[in-house]
Structures are given as structure tokens and as C-alpha cells.
Amino acid sequence: MTFKRIRLGALLFSLCATAAVQAKEWTEIRFGVFPQYPPFESVAADGSLQGFDIELGNAICTKLQVKCTWVHNEFDGMIPALRARKFDAIMSSMAVTPARLKQIAFSDRLYLSPTSVIVRKSADFGDTPESLKGKQIGVLQGSLQEAYARAKLSQLGAQVKAYQSQDQNYADLLNGRLDATVTDKLEAQLNFLTKPEGANFKSGPAIKDPTLPLDIAIGLRTTDTELKALLDKGIAAIHADGTYALIQKKYVGELDIYNE
Amino acid sequence: MNDFFSNGLQGFGPMLVQGTWMTVKLALLALALSLFLGLLGACAKLSRSPLLRVPATLYTTLIRSVPDLVLILLLFYSLQIWLNDLTESLGWDYVEIDPFSAGVLTLGFIYGAYFTENFRGAILSVPAGQLEAATAYGLSRSQRFRLVLFPQLMRFALPGLGNNWLVLLKSTALVSIIGLADLVKAAQNAGKTTNEMLFFLSIAGLVYLLITTLSNCLLKYLERRYNNGIRELAR
User: Fold this and answer.
1) How far is B176 from chain A (nearest CA, A)?
2) Which of A49, A162, A193, B164 could form an S-S bond across to A198 if both were Cys, CB 3.0 to 4.6 Å?
3) B51 Cβ partners below 8 Å, 6+ apart?
């Protein structure tokens, strides 16, 4: 028993003593990321992070000559963790929404994430919300698109169905149970339209609606105004020297996801 | 084996092994902490002094009524925010509660409450005459505990301890929510990157099965040991 007691005492002591000290100057920026959203952020086989956001973040840090570290965190817990100072910035494909703006600040735009309607190439609807009257529309459960579809498209006479994953939307679109899916245009482009099974489908234009945010940006604590200025400078710098264009080409090909 | 790791798991083998190690480490440290808290709590709960009894009763009642997930999130986020406010007002540097310590402390704290009840029941099952006889023989307090009470209470406590251990082991999956790269997190990361979620989650399930099977063997052995000298009833 004595031995056990000493060991436990040592354990408790070492647990209590884990403390990290943080510098006041911005020599290091800790990014919070939820790496389960390829191609924007995911974990490679060797355990390293890969993706569009990761390369953008690292490029920004190189420009600013600061050290970048990445902290894994669940997406649901991003904002509480940011406020608890587990990291300094959220770099995880987070869209700027009015609800989030009440809690945190955002940097300048990283890229756009428009919502659009995916339909068969032969379809004569999908270009406007009004054209979806009487159609079966699939959305991802819990997404901004679901909220939009239930609020607006249902009123216009569309039948809205919510699915657990976006893949299930595509499956039902393929077998004809759905006439269209309302989703993130970029996601559809990368995970469906460019794949063999999506060859007969097309995307309509971006839907303009105040409840559908466009901007993806870096989330920041409202008090860190100088960090926001620093990161905005970094974003401008990678645009100016063409680094952004290179990374964009590597991940999304010819698409212009900053301006489109 | 090397071939299996590099091809069969699409190169994610080492990551899964690291995740497994993290899970085992977390579970064992949390177990040690909760056994310690459990024995302490049980003694406090059985004490005649209300100063010990009341806090111990509060501890087991409160902890056992709040979901593990809620406690983990509370400790990791809210406690950190309060700690920040405190260190800031005192002008100290930022003190981080890292995910591993938070995981060990929370799981140990939660399961300590279950172990408390476990040990309390076991202590009450040891006939009072045993301790009275030990006192009559002139054994000191620590001798009484070590030589008479502990070996006998373990016999009653082990089945419940084994149960709680298995639940604790699986609860470690909850810490993946605070960013710790445990087995479940590693499997999810691998599944998301390769688009084969089901496959990697099944692997994780098999690893959990392996660990629980091993611990069941160990528990069987311990039960036999602490049942020495007791005739086994017909099963």
C-alpha cells in the first residue's frame, strides 16, 4: 500500500504541475482545427495534417515569420476552446454567421463557400429557388442549408428531406428519390460532380440569401485585435505574391474559390 | 505483420497503435486515481464523523448523477475559463489544463465515485467480528487494514470493480471530444481521410474487445486469488 500511495502522490503532483507559459508577443500562433473535412483539413497516414486550410495557415505564418502550431479540437467545441485559450485562432473551414459573430471575431475572408442546387444536367429547374416548387429536395441534417430550405423552400412549395450525411443525399439523387440537393457548392464540386457517379449532374448558380453565409474565415477572440490585424496582413501577403493561387490550384484545380 | 500495417490499413497502422497506447495509458492512470479516491471515499462514508461523511456522500451523489460527457466538457472548458480569469486577475501567466491531464482527472474523479460505493459495500460485507478479533489480537490500525480488512473486502469488491473498469475503459472514448488522439479519434481521422469510416471503426472495436478480453483474464486470476480459502459454491 505504501508503494501505491507514493506512486499516486507523484502522479497527482505531476498532473497538477502541467502548466504552459505563453509569450505576450505573437511569435507563435496556435490554430484550432478539426481535421475530418477533406480536402480542407484531414490527417495523413503519418499523422501529419494536410489540406487547403493547413497549407494556407502555414503559408500565412511563413509570411508573418511566426511559428504555427495546430491543435486538434472537435468542431462543436471550437468556440468554447478558443475562449478558454486552448488555441488562438480557429482555422477549420468555419463560416462567418451572425450567431458566431456574437461570440467571436473573424479575420478577412479565406475563401467563399456558396450554396447551390445540384440537379440532373437535363433538368429545367434549379436556377432559382422558385423553380423548386413541388420538387423533392434533400439537405444535410443540422446544416445551414437545412435551416434555409425549411424556412424558404418549404414555403415555395418544395418537399424538404434531411439526411444524416451528404453522401446519402447523392445516393437518393442518383436513384431518383430526390430531384435536387441544396448543399455547399464547393463540397458538391469536389466530392460529387467531379466523380464518375456525378457526371450527369450540374450545379446551379450560388443562392443569394442572408441566412446562407458566404465567407469562410479565421475565428478569433474579440479581444485579440492586434492578432486580427496581423492575420489580415498575412492573408493579403499570400494573395500578393501568388502563394494563394498556387495552393488553390493544388486543391480545387481551376476553380476560383476566393472571388467566384 | 509489417506488410499488413503498411498495406492493409493504408498506412494508418502506426497511428492506430499510438491511439491504442493513449487509450490504455489514460484508462490505467484513471483507474489508479479512481481506486485511490474510491478507498478514501468509502472510508470517509463509513466514518462516524459527519465532517468526512457529508462531503463523501455529496461527492458520490453528485458525480453519479451527472453524465461523464458533461463533466469532461465542464472541466476542460469552463474550468479553464475560470482558471484564466483567476490567473489574469493575479497577473500570472496562462496555465493550461492539457487534454491528457483533464481526461485522467475527470475520468478518475467520476469513477472514484462509483468505486467508493463499490468499496463501501465490500467493507460492509466483511463480518464485524473479523475487525474486532484483529483489535483483540493487538494489531495496529494499518495492520488491521492490510492483513485483515483489505484481503477480505477485495473478495467482495472484485466483481463490481471489474465491471466498473470495463465501463471506464470504454469511457476513455469520450476524451476524443477534447482533442486527445485516443483510439477512437485515430480511427475517425483515418476513416475520414480514406473514406472508409466503417472499416476503421470496426478495427477500433476489435482492439477494445482485445483489451477487455485480456482484462477479463486478469480479473479471473485476481478473483481466484482473493477467494483463496473460500469454498466455491456450486455454480
Assistant:
1) 8
2) A193
3) none
| CATH fold for the domain made of A115-203 | D-Maltodextrin-Binding Protein; domain 2 (3.40.190)
Question: Would B59 be classed as within a structural domain?
Answer: yes
Tell me the HSE value of A243 on the side-chain side, using a 13 A CA sphere. 19
Interchain proximity A20–B80, CB inside 8 Å: no
Asked if residue B232 is part of any domain, the answer here is no
Best mutation target among A86, A90, A93, A190 (most B Cβ atoms within 10 Å) is A86
A21 within 8 A of B94, measured Cβ to Cβ? yes
Chain B CB contacts of A83 under 8 Å are: 77, 81
Residue A66: exposure state from Cβ atoms within 10 A (0-12, 13-18, ≥19)? middle
- CATH assignment, A28-112+215-252: 3.40.190.10
Residue A7 scores a pLDDT above 70: no
Nearest by CB to A44, which of B77, B177, B193? B193
Looking at the structure of chain B, the number of domains it has is 1
A157-177 pLDDT tens trace: 999 999 988 888 999 999 999
